[in-house]
Specification:
The complex is a heterodimer.
Chain A (H helix, E strand, L loop, with lengths): L21 E6 L3 H17 L5 H14 L1 E3 L2 E5 L3 H27 L3 H29 L1 E3 L2 E5 L3 H17 L5 H14 L1 E3 L2 E5 L4 H13 L7 H15 L1 E3 L2 E5 L3 H17 L5 H14 L1 E4 L17 H9 L7
Antiparallel strand pairs in A: 1-2, 1-10, 2-3, 3-4, 4-5, 5-6, 6-7, 7-8, 8-9, 9-10
Chain B lengths: L3 E7 L7 E7 L3 E6 L4 E5 L4 E4 L7 E5 L5 E5 L4 H11 L14 H30 L5 H15 L9 H17 L8 E5 L6 E3 L4 E5 H6 L3 H16 L2 H19 L8 H12 L4 H17 L5 H15 L13 H14 L13 H4 L5
Parallel strand pairs in B: 8-10
Antiparallel strand pairs in B: 1-2, 1-7, 2-3, 3-4, 5-6, 6-7, 9-10
Classes of the chains: A alpha+beta, B alpha+beta.
Chain lengths: 327, 364
């Protein structure tokens, strides 16, 4: 082979296409394949006395990412089991250390100090874990070979979180719409695809009225109103999320979520849990088919700007049972 | 065999999607771009990151940081590439095709269930036997001390000095007869409606007053104490904790939820505060307890009589909670009697000058 054939591609694209169409997401995975992955992961996890758990996580994510298509290209997941295992060990040292200090203090009859240390530690760790998990997942996700990233810092996020938690406590939870909007503004506002930043311009006050209404209707609707509130909040949140000039648009509805959840629940109950992979696939299909990115966006000209990240936050979030960016 | 395929190429620097034609050559891939330029990828520099599943386009990557990638939709591409590369003895880091056969998955499922069952039945108890001796006794004592205030609130403890002195005498005699142990046995008697006795890890034994008052002789109480002291010496509570911890860890791993390990704290806490022992542990404590009684030259019929009282109470359904995991009282009595008959004991009375009738009712 002639070495001159290895010349790189011209760095400027030949055709620049700025379309203002709608870019769709779609999920192609099947419950059967996911079930196969789950079962083989389970067997290997048992055989390795749990160590394979981290590789299993990577396997599952590689599948889910690889089956998700945006505008004709699949996502890629680039995490490795080894880095997740190391991240887990770090998280265990941090979280275990906190638990041990608390245990030690309470054995030394320092009950109040133990409580303060434990809850103070949790409040400091929670945003670290949440942000770390977002950072890890984004930095290990690619589309068209370009990585996502997160550029937020811990200290401002901790400040935001502590302020939010205090106001939540003082207002007995009424602050929630403002709290979730402020966390989202930070987490999305510091997320990037290559060199292009995402933005979130939603405001808590615009959801506040509906939130109060949902609170009032909780008892008469036996809590079901919260499914409709979740749908509303999701539509609102996506509708205020943009990347460059393009904006997301979600068509999730209360009835849609209700039907999805009900069928999934029945499937899982009657199959004694065996149908969980099929339920997962149904949920991802629904989520993807109800989300589009609209507006002018040059999908071809986004430049790479990758960033290093460690998986400790990801595993800490796992340990603390944190849902990354719910709703 | 088909040797050229349509695909898309991404250079790893921008998101530009280049429509390309890929040619399979013996030593590598030749990627032809629409502007006429060509790129050559040797097989040994490639990593396959996608395409192991049905309906998943093949993705090949080349390079360390920010690798360039090539995507080919046609499902025929990967097998062809593998054939050509292997024929030339060239290797690339590829995904193994996922075993899609239903048989493999069913077998894996059955094997998982069987392994889990075996782990629960034999693996974990064996692990607990192995790990428990490694737990320092100071930890056990600290753990025990931390739950004593909950089990025996200070204002409900019997403070009578005469009662304590008499009970301590029994404990000392039992302690002296047994093998050396790192534990210091301390007995606390608590006012309570419950008929029960507990041994916390580390040597604290709690007797609830109804149990003490039901004994007719100090030898009967010695039977209970010997049983509880053996729970401590054989580290039954610690073993149960280790078992719960491992169970929770496995459940967490199986359910794909590491936070499940956090739930172990709850479960372990429950074990600690109820201090229920498995049937095997109870039988062991009975047997070793009886041997301790015999070694201390205490009349073994006391211990037997105590369990006859328990039997009578169980028959009257007075004790639904206590001894629910204890061996069936009849079998238990039979075993104790057999053990007592094995070794003749020239017993000496425990408290020759004490009047147990008075002592056992003391509290304040």
């Amino acid at each position: 082979m002639n070495p001159s054939l290895r010349s790189p591609v011209p760095s400027t694209p030949l055709s620049v296409s700025i379309s203002s169409g709608a870019y769709r997401l779609s999920f192609h995975g099947s419950g059967g394949e996911l079930f196969g992955i789950f079962i083989l992961n389970l067997l290997k996890t048992i055989l390795t006395l749990g160590v394979y758990y981290f590789w299993a996580k990577v396997k599952t994510r590689q599948y889910l990412w690889g089956q998700t298509d945006f505008a004709g290209d699949r996502f890629g997941f680039h995490g490795t089991g080894k880095e997740l295992l190391l991240g887990y060990l770090k998280a265990v040292v941090v979280f275990g250390g906190l638990v041990l200090i608390q245990l030690f203090l309470s054995l030394a009859e320092q009950k109040i100090l133990a409580l303060v240390v434990f809850w103070g530690g949790l409040i400091a760790l929670w945003p670290l874990a949440l942000m770390g998990a977002v950072r890890y997942r984004l930095s290990r996700t690619s589309w068209r070979g370009i990585r996502f990233s997160f550029r937020g810092e811990y200290q401002p996020f901790l400040g935001l979180f502590v302020r939010g938690v205090l106001l939540m406590a003082l207002t007995l939870g009424l602050y929630y719409p403002f709290y979730q909007a402020s966390l989202r503004r930070f987490l999305i506002g510091h997320a990037a695809f290559g060199s292009t930043l995402f933005t979130f311009d939603g405001q808590g006050k615009e959801l506040f009225g509906k939130f109060i209404l949902a609170l009032l209707l909780t008892i008469p609707t036996l809590g079901l109103i919260w499914i409709w509130y979740t749908a509303l909040q999701r539509r609102y949140n996506w509708g205020h999320t943009s990347v460059a000039e393009a904006r997301f648009h979600s068509t999730v509805t209360g009835w849609g979520l209700f039907g999805l959840g009900l069928v999934n629940l029945l499937m899982i109950i009657f199959s004694l849990g065996l149908a969980i992979p099929w339920a997962t696939v149904r949920t991802l299909r629904y989520d993807c088919s109800n989300l589009v990115l609209q507006g002018p966006l040059d999908l071809d000209s986004i430049a790479q700007q990758a960033q290093a990240a460690t998986p400790a936050g990801e595993e800490l979030a796992d340990l603390l049972g944190i849902d990354v960016l719910p709703g | 065999m088909q040797t050229s395929w349509p695909g898309h190429y991404y250079d790893g620097r921008t998101s530009t999607r280049h429509a390309v034609t890929v040619f399979l050559t013996p030593s590598g891939l030749e990627i032809s771009l629409s502007d006429g330029s060509r790129i050559f990828w040797p097989y040994h520099e490639l990593t396959q990151t996608q395409g192991g599943y049905e309906h998943e386009p093949a993705r090949l990557e080349r390079g360390q940081t920010n690798p360039a990638s090539l995507v080919v939709e046609d499902p025929g591409f990967l097998p062809s590439m593998r054939t050509i590369a292997q024929r030339e003895g060239r290797q690339f880091r590829g995904l193994r095709e996922f075993p899609r056969g239903a048989r493999v998955i069913v077998l894996a499922g059955v094997a998982s269930l069987a392994l889990l069952g075996a782990l629960m039945l034999w693996g974990i108890p064996a692990l607990a036997e192995l790990v428990t001796p490694l737990v320092p006794t100071t930890w056990e004592t600290a753990l025990g001390n931390s739950i004593i205030p909950e089990l025996a609130p200070v204002d409900l403890r019997c403070g009578s000095r005469r009662l304590r002195e008499n009970v301590d005498k029994i404990v000392t005699r039992l302690g002296a007869a047994g093998p050396p142990t790192p534990y210091t046995f301390r007995v606390t008697i608590v006012e309570s409606p419950v008929f029960n006795a507990l041994a916390a890890p580390g040597g604290s034994i709690i007797l609830f007053r109804p149990l003490v008052r039901s004994t007719e002789t100090p030898e009967e109480l010695a039977g209970v104490l010997a049983h509880e002291m053996q729970h401590v010496r054989l580290r039954h509570a610690t073993k149960a904790l280790v078992r719960d911890l491992s169970m929770a860890a496995i459940a967490g791993a199986v359910l794909g939820d590491v936070s499940g390990i956090g739930a172990f704290a709850v479960q372990a806490g429950r074990t600690l505060t109820t201090l229920h022992h498995s049937r095997g542990a109870e039988e062991e404590a009975d047997r070793e307890g009886m041997r301790l009684i015999q070694a201390a030259q205490i009349d073994p019929s006391g211990m037997i009589r105590f369990f006859e009282t328990v039997k009578a109470k169980t028959a009257n359904a007075e004790l639904p909670g206590y001894l629910s995991t204890h061996p069936e009282t009849d079998q238990r009595l039979a075993r104790l009697k057999a053990l007592a008959a094995e070794v003749p004991v020239h017993s000496t009375p425990l408290l020759p000058d004490g009047r147990w009738e008075d002592v056992k009712n003391l509290c304040q």
